[in-house]
Design goal:
Distance between the termini: 92 Å
Shape: globular
Number of helices: 29
Structural class: alpha+beta
Strand order of the largest sheet: 2-3-4-1-5
Number of strands: 15
Helix content: 40-55%
Strand content: 5-15%
Radius of gyration: 29 Å
Largest sheet: 5 strands, antiparallel
Amino acid sequence: MPHTPIRPAQPFDEQRIAQALNGFIEGSGHWGPGTFAGFTEVGGYLTGSREEAPARYRGWNWYRFIGRCGAVALRASLFHVPDHLRAVQLAMLEVWAETPFADPEVRARMRTGVVELADRDTHAARTREGAVVALHGLGAGREGQRFVELRTGAAQPPAPGRITATEPAHAAGWDTPDRLRRLVDLVRQKGPAPWDRAAAAVLAERTGLSRAGAALLLAGIPDVKYGYRGLDAEARKVMGLKQSEAEAGERELAALSVAERLDLLADVLPADPEQLWLDGGQSALAERIAEAWRRQQGVRPAVPEPTLAVAAEHSDVRMAPAAVCAVFADPAREPRLTRDPDTRLRMNSISGGGWEGEEGYRFAELLAVVCDAVDWVYAELPEGDPVRRGVPETVRLLRERLAHPELLLSARGRSLRGHTVASLLPSFPDALPYVDAAEPLARPTLDDGLVVVSEAGFDRRGEREAPGVYFRPGRYGADERSRRLEAVVDVADSRLALVRRLRGPEVERIVQRITEGALPPGGYEADPRLSAPAVVEEAAAITGLDTDAATLYLQLLALPMPTDRRVRRFNRWTPAHHKAVAAALVEAGLVVADRRARAGRGVFLPGDWAGGDRFFPPMETWKAGLLGVRVIGRKVYSRPVGGPLPELFARAWRTRPH
């Protein structure tokens, strides 16, 4: 039976498919010319209108759009999408509307899953009972392929291999042929739907997302991939977002997987798409998106916008600012803090050795985030802030997880490239093979109770990769095994350092300061008038400065980043008053006025200066020694080691340069 390809009514650039669908797809190299035709080929084969098996490897994992094309329809209706990309989206909707994947009655007889092909060259099968087509993408097992099946008889149709996993297609989706065609016509006639800032505010309120995160969610999650900036300057202006806010919002939503994004936005459009262009249409859309978000993600705790702004200043933290704040504001809601992860080693497909699995990786990520963030949350947020108030419980829960005796963390320390388990055995006497793997490991291992080593394979040059070194933090302490571990990893740059810091006395005293509520409501620990008044009094008496000048001097001595903006926030000073106080310090000869890259301030301690970058703040070389910062060649190469600020102000004053 001949098969006629479906052609969109208007031309579009097939080279732009990956850009137009960014954030909704993966494997961008498979999303190029012929992808949309591939949808029709598969649909034709499944329904019997096409005889030959369709081509493979077009549109990586495109089966996810079955019943979820409403997400593409939403984005195609939005103002921020460039015309050349909107043309691609509308073309996809036109093609999809003519395939069996847009028919709810047909979708009810579809399922997807994973099939292990019996023959690499045979990926499709059809009988009177129906048809099965293997698309591509790894699934369960080495030969696992994603498939789509359409049943036309009473029995399941035969598959071109062993089916190892199945799930029904999303039948009751928004994307019916009539709705898809209707939306395409409306966009071409009316242009994109109007933007409503108030609707984004409603979405933020209903979900706990930041204002920027909610705006981007309402905008169909524009994503920064494949060389395409999600929002240009004009779009940010319409949405009322600064570039830094838009970037923070992008990071906030980045944790959503492709599948989560499609599920989230699949059914949020109105039954009659024209409602999007009417008064209140965007607010109603925001309510539906909020409901979908709550079902999928729950409601995040409300975080004040000023707190989110402070978090956004710390771009070195590995999670989105809003996500970091949510962890501290409601730690009991974070699964990684309340459930012990499964970190049993399993095969690493890249190195051939072992790795701790996705749960272990994500837990280690959270450990690093908390250790990096606890200092600024404590120091730069005011007393009574919900994020700051959550530090003690966050630390307690994380310590509880670390105490689990079977938790494994990658040491991530000094490279042991070239070593094997056999060559390392003398360093770990009495070690036995590791026996708790989640799946069989193909290479040798050793396990001395604290340390696990998994041998790796060879790289492309034929050189042996460094073995994986793991440790059980619940068994790490001051014994001989722990010293052996420290001998083979660089403690300063490993996850050992994170564990030691979280359990250490500095974090414990930070927790104590917050628990005691030593500050007045709204007060900042970084204001020494509140956290170290005796030191301020002594500094003023010895230098002859007034209280405000002594306060600024101590902040310049002790704080890692005493930018003008931060100092004014901590001290509640106007720019004019701050300028006058700084001038008094210059007149007293205690600081010098200057302009320095990335400093964010106009006065500095006398002496040498160490530059920084996005991850490590620049600072006076003297201060680097006070804060435990590594400086190499007049450049900062590590983060400050924080601690209770009353102690730091006192130590900075005692050891100040003269």
